[in-house]
Design a protein that fits this description.
Layout (H helix, E strand, L loop, with lengths): L2 H32 L5 E10 L5 E12 L3 E3 L1 H11 L2 H21 L6 E5 L2 H4 L4 H11 L7 E6 L1 H5 L1 H14 L2 E7 L8 H4 L4 E4 L1 H4 L6 H16 L3 E4 L5 H9 L4 E2 L10 H10 L7
Parallel strand pairs: 2-4, 4-5, 5-6, 6-7, 7-8, 8-9
Antiparallel strand pairs: 1-2, 1-9, 2-3
Helix pairs in contact: 1-2, 3-5, 5-7
Bound molecules: ligand C2E and magnesium ion (3 copies).
One magnesium ion (MG) binds next to loops.
């Protein structure tokens, strides 16, 4: 490597970094107004009980469409919202949208649908979280059992004592807690014993190659069996094929979620989906 090459290499690298931080700044600025300008929406992805084939819940997934920048993935903007602190405002908004939606569905005769909401570890560390959840549930007269909160393994890692106290406070309200992307974190399994967890979400990276990769298959089986022996429920994420569904059912997984059943859809589409899949409906 000549001196000139390495200098060019450095310049290329710093240009890349600059481009990236320009985009980040652009997104962070745009995000501040995204809710008030009506650019954000909560979509829902249906979840099905594998044994009864009934729709038992939906996961709330945030969507952002900017008029100039187009559709921006939550995988890109959520980390930026976390680093800027804006996730507290956005997260409360998602929570309120979801609970209001439960109220509307119940008023339309759609009962027994659980809505799960993703919580950032930043929200999870906010001491005001349990009071906020309680206040929103009361405002819309929604029972806590209708709401599920999804956490990642990371929250247990950062501050185990604080996490236990927060989980206790949330569980005390009657909301259910699930561990998202289970198996991808680095936490010890002992937290499952201490935390008031209700359900494990088997990460889609293990589900994807379930039919062809023996190791992924072994991991999924181990998670389902671990959950069962601890008295926890399981849901598999990212189910795209009937083969994956059949395998999960054969292993005793409780629920599934994925493109095979439905992509995340907007509020109106979800209402239609839930009405069409209501027990007794023959659409
Ligand atoms: P997640 O909570 O693990 O959500 C599942 C992701 O998998 C969603 O991506 C969903 O659209 C996608 N997915 C579902 N079924 C399939 C499938 O069959 N195949 C494939 N390939 N993908 C599938 P999405 O909506 O882009 O969200 C990405 C992540 O962004 C979420 O992962 C979650 O961590 C985060 N996120 C989304 N909405 C929120 C939110 O309101 N608050 C917070 N804190 N995070 C959110
Ligand atoms: Mg999730
Ligand atoms: Mg997940
Ligand atoms: Mg994820």
């Amino acid at each position: 490597r000549t001196k000139k090459e390495s200098r060019n290499g450095y310049r290329f690298f710093s240009n890349q970094m600059q481009l990236q931080s320009t985009r980040h700044l652009q997104l962070m600025n745009a995000m501040r107004q995204a809710i008030t300008l009506g650019q954000m929406a909560v979509y829902y992805q249906p979840q099905m009980d594998l044994t009864t084939q009934k729709i038992v819940g939906v996961e709330a997934l945030l969507r952002w469409k900017h008029p100039q920048l187009g559709y921006i993935s939550p995988a890109e903007f959520i980390p930026l919202a976390e680093s800027s602190g804006l996730i507290i405002t956005i997260g409360s908004w998602v929570l309120e949208q979801a609970v209001q939606q439960i109220q509307q569905w119940q008023a339309a005769g759609i009962q027994d649908i659980r809505v799960s909401v993703n919580l950032s570890s930043i929200q999870f560390r906010d001491p005001g979280l349990p009071a906020l959840v309680q206040e929103i549930l009361q405002r819309y007269a929604v029972l806590p059992q209708s709401l599920e909160l999804e956490l990642t393994e990371g929250v247990a890692l950062e501050n185990p004592q604080g996490a236990v106290a927060m989980m206790d406070a949330l569980a005390q309200l009657g909301v259910r807690l699930s561990i998202d992307d289970f198996g991808t974190g680095y936490s010890s399994l002992s937290y499952l014993k201490r935390f008031k967890v209700y359900k494990l979400k088997v990460d889609q990276s293990f589900v994807r190659d379930i039919s062809t990769d023996d190791e992924d298959k072994a991991i999924v089986i181990a998670i389902i069996h671990l959950a069962r022996s601890l008295g926890l429920k399981t849901i598999a994420e990212g189910v795209e094929t009937p083969e994956q569904q059949a395998f999960l059912l054969s292993q005793g997984c409780d629920e599934m979620q994925g493109y095979l059943l439905s992509r995340p859809i907007n509020s109106e589409q979800t209402t239609a989906f839930l009405l069409a899949h209501r027990p007794g409906s023959h659409l």
